């Protein structure tokens, strides 16, 4: 994963119509447009200590999880989580799309959500007692009734919709 420094700055990219982060010579454009942002930055804002804490926490959780992501994908996920925590507007639960489970939960922030159409991995961004804010990790997640989530789009669900995602690591071949 990239190591943040004092030059990183959030801003709203009017050409892309999305929240973006300038990282020195690089630019990271989030998928979050103004309609989903609770607050649109009017000028550049520093990637601050709270962002750094969230970024580091996501990195730690990714190392503990069984998700198979390369460093670029880990950085992308961590930066999107930072963007959501800082700028995304609150959303209401939409649990009716998903199956409920008695053995609900998540493992190192990763869970499965099951709709009538498919099962998808999600990252649990926020867990309050009554609901969990989840970020879709799949390229496209079909919810049903013609609705879907794009990768990194958010949905809030009640906790019993989540199943722990514990994928098996590839086993080493023995000689």
Mean pLDDT: 93
Radius of gyration: 17 Å
Question: How many strands, which pairing sense, and closed or not: the largest β-sheet?
Answer: 5 strands, antiparallel
Number of domains: 2
> β content, as a range?
25-35%
Spatial separation of the terminal alpha carbons: 33 Å
Element string (H = helix, E = strand): EEEEHHEEEEEEE
Number of strands: 11
Structural class: alpha+beta
Strands of the biggest beta sheet: in what spatial order? 10-7-6-5-11
Helix share of residues?
A: 10-25%
Uncertain runs: 168-175
* Tally of alpha and pi helices: 2
Basic shape: globular
Multimeric organization = single chain
InterPro entries: ZapC_C, ZapC_N
Protein name: Cell division protein ZapC
Keywords: Cell cycle, Cell division
Pfam family, one: ZapC_N
Structure description:
It contains two helices and eleven strands. With 175 residues, it is of the alpha+beta class. It has two domains: 9-87, no CATH class; 95-164, no CATH class. The chain has a five-stranded antiparallel beta sheet with strand order 10-7-6-5-11. Strands 3-2-1-4 form a four-stranded antiparallel beta sheet, with helices on one face. A hairpin with a 4-residue loop joins β5 (110-114) and β6. The longest helix has 17 residues, at 71-87. Residues 168-175 have low confidence and may be disordered.
Topology:
Elements: E1 9-13, E2 18-23, E3 26-29, E4 45-46, H1 49-64, H2 71-87, E5 110-114, E6 119-128, E7 131-136, E8 140-144, E9 147-150, E10 154-157, E11 163-164
